[in-house]
Amino acid sequence: MRWALLVAVVYGYVVLGGSVLVRxxxxxxxxxxxxxxxxxxxxxxxxxxxxxxxxxxxxTLALAGGFTSIGFxxxxxxxxxxxxxxxxxFAEYYLVGTLLSxxxxxxxxxxxxxxxxx
Length: 118
Known about the structure:
By secondary structure, the protein is mostly helical. The protein contains four helices and no strands.
């Protein structure tokens, strides 16, 4: 029963807490994207939910030892953003957010995996 609580806490920190950390990093002045005026409005809300799902899936894959499958998650995300990646500013912003989010999820999975073994 204690392990279930630990798993829930780690998922909460990685999925929800990771959102806060990634947002803080992406809000740094050097990474802030200029207003594109493309009419899409603020996509942060959608990005936040995509990040939740992304970290949850990667954490689950890391916990299950499916590290090669993590590449499929990152590929799917990149395909969805393919056109926007032509913009260098967006590409750098996207890469920082994706790599930080992935790192947090993998570390959470490795932590849980090591704790649950004992």
